[in-house]
Amino acid sequence: MSVLVVGSVAYDGIEAPAGKVDRTLGGSATYISVASSYFTSPVRLVGTVGNDFDDRDTRFLKEKGVDLEGFKVDDSGRTFFWKGRYHENMNNRDTLDTQLNVFEHFDPVIPEVYKGSRIVCLGNIDPNLQLKVLDQVTEPRLTICDTMNLWIDITREALEETISKVDVLIINDQEAAELTGETNLVKSAKIIRKKGPKFLIIKKGEHGAHLYSDRFEFSVPAYPLASITDPTGAGDTFMGGFAGWLSRIDKIDEENLRRAVVYGTVMASFCVENFGTERLAKLSSYEIESRYDELRKLSAIPPRN
Ligand code: AMP
Do 62 and 68 meet the contact criterion of CB atoms below 8 Å apart? Predict the structure, then answer.
């Protein structure tokens, strides 16, 4: 199944206890596309960048097999820039700078050949734009959406509409609490699921991820890492692994949704091992499958005696 990814393509500046980078390729659509590309083809990226976008980065996306027909270079300005600083515990971060640049005028126009994409990933962008994308796609088998605190705060109504229309919502525990005013995840998941999505995945950082649906629930721990260099994009990378796996297997049932959550977790664990997309850029399928097996062993609960 084809995957359509819509979101931000950015340059990020990152400060973390492990070090800092001034300008590295990032953005929600970048992470989702690169992670998905390890599982499936084509991955179709709709996004916009400015006149400072490096040819090297375009080449990198192409080498990963990302289809760039919907990727627009807007010569009128620079690429979206975001800068964040992580606290010592890596769970909290402060946004130090957001320069929208050409992203301010981003209007996702889905190319004709992309409209029939079967899996649609709505990366973290203004929910009004996510709704525009949903209006343009013709036969999605699965629509998956991410969001962030900013949109919960300033575009609540549009976000509620997006959530009511998508099949899968992937958010983190803090966003779930903010969306519902409820910090208990069991209760907040119930409230969010009533808003529409068939499947809800709540990511809990180093504590793993939990999938909620009518028929089943599934929980997977985070892959245990001794050190984390940069958590930027981990959530987007999770979505990429999740969507990529479902696209590859072409069968959306309970088993494969469970596997997709594990692949999402595996990909996110690689993402955080280095700054930006550094680690994601160079993965082998052996590394991916080995981590899948390790997670499986880690959480195998034997039957009662
Ligand atoms: P995450 O760590 O999953 O929240 O994703 C981080 C990525 O989101 C970074 O690469 C940023 O470039 C991008 N980002 C930050 N703020 C925004 C925003 N307001 N809209 C779209 N993308 C953003």
Answer: yes
Q: What is the DSSP string of 83-111?
A: EEEE-TTSS-EEEEEEE-GGGGG---PPP
Compute, in angstroms, the gap from residue 221 CA to the centroid of ligand 1.
Answer: 24
Report the relative pairing of strands 80-86 and 93-99 from DSSP bridges. antiparallel
Mutating to test ligand 1, I would choose from 8, 12, 34, 146 the residue with most ligand atoms within 8 A of its C-beta, which is 8
Amino acid sitting at position 15: E
Mean pLDDT, residues 278-304 taken together: 96
From the CB of 230, is ligand 1 less than 6 Å away? no
Q: Has residue 173 been placed in a domain?
A: yes
User: pLDDT tens digit string along 1-43?
Assistant: 899 999 999 999 999 999 999 999 999 999 999 999 999 999 9
Is residue 304 a part of any domain in this protein? no
Q: How many domains does the chain have?
A: 1
Alpha carbon nearest to ligand 1 atom 14, residue: 27
pLDDT at 206 over 90: no
pLDDT value of residue 205: 86
Which atom of ligand 1 has the smallest separation from the CA of 148?
Answer: 4
